[in-house]
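Archive entry: two folds, one per protein. Generate the first.
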Amino acid sequence: MTADMQDLLAFMAVVKAGGFREGGRVSGKSASSLSDAVRRMEARLGVRLLNRTTRSVVPTEAGRRLMERIVPALDEVAAALDVVNDFRDRPSGTLKLNVPVSAARLVLPSIITPFLQSYPDITLEVVIEESFVDMLAAGCDAGIRYEERLEQDMIAIPIGPRFQRFATAASPTYLDARGRPEHPRDLLEHACLRGKFPSGAMPLWVYERNGETVSVDPTGPLVVNVGGAVELAVQAAVDGLGVVYLFEDWLRPYLDSGALEPVLESWWQGFTGPFLYYSGRHYLPSPLRAFVDFIKEN
């Protein structure tokens, strides 16, 4: 590795760590050697890359632009080197997926075990994230999202069920006491258990039948964060507190057992199932390539 590349890696270590001392700790080099490396780069380029104070070290605009270019480039180099894994008996390494809780609950359970059994040298890390994120900036190899939330310039392949519905349900006890809605707008007179995204937005309840689409914004005694807290709303519905609106597959065990009763089933709106999406770069890390192949084959 040339001295120029070593200096470049030193610069990256300082920027990522936010300082020379922390950069040295992470990289295993001394703070003074990192400082010397950055000074050499600045002298060669004729431009300041870092603003240094006694409290902080932050990149200049030139330094930020440099980071924006070299990080993806070095990621591509690392991925290209990872192609060597093709010559091993089995792909190895870590695969990091960014998925919403619905995918973690409804899509991945039937996939994880057979995949990891097929590739025992791969470690799968699953990050649950409801917000729309820059998957690569978040340090993930791939994500699962629904079509309307896919990032641009990504390759997307189907994963999991290809058709899903949003279902509405309540306990028989609640419906016996409050009546059974016959039209989506009737929900405005009912206690409805709502979900809220991390952004603060509360999605409307959308229904469709015979070409007619109706969106309602009902109210009720409970609002939960979309994600892990959704199960609280489901349990509240089972306990008779109100009406819940969620993936049909999520509610199916409760519907089959009779703990919940379908509400407005003829109005339930269907939608396309989720997609696995990942960067279209030429070289894929071997764990991701193995996962993509596994999904396509199965």
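Generate the second and append.
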Amino acid sequence: MPTLNPTSAALLGLLHDGPMTGGELLAAAKTRLGTLWNITRSQVYRELPVLVRAGHVKLGKSGARAAQPYAITATGKRAFGAWLATPPGVDHLRNPLLLRLGFGRQHTKAQLRSLLADARADHESALAAHRDRLARLRTGTADQFAVATAEYGVAYEKALLKWLDTVPTG
């Protein structure tokens, strides 16, 4: 059985909750994973036909505005189970802030201060969003693992903000 890519695996995992359209899958990914694993509209609509051709999902009846629901098949459940059983591999951190800071000596002091101020604002906003998501998850009957991913988001943003205080400004 071929290995699933992370986007396909995420879609199959989300479809365990029941049939969904592409838009519903995007919303479910945002609720369950937040910004910790970004799935774009183009990725969803590129992967769904691939999953159909592989027999991992099947098409349902078109709904309002020709919305097409997808449902996971037994083959898809087996493929997802096989994906879950594989090691996750090494984290791939592709942080645009770190890339720019890696060339910090080439920045002017003003550029560096601006870069760090913008990063602070972005991560304070992200922290607020993770806290809001966590609060919403805790008030419902959320999956304990969705709560754990939201808690990670909060911890990550808090750590990054603390780290930003240590970055030299030139």
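Annotation attached to the second fold: The beta strands are 57-59, 70-72. Helices lie at 6-15, 22-33, 41-53, 74-84, 96-101, 109-139, 144-164.
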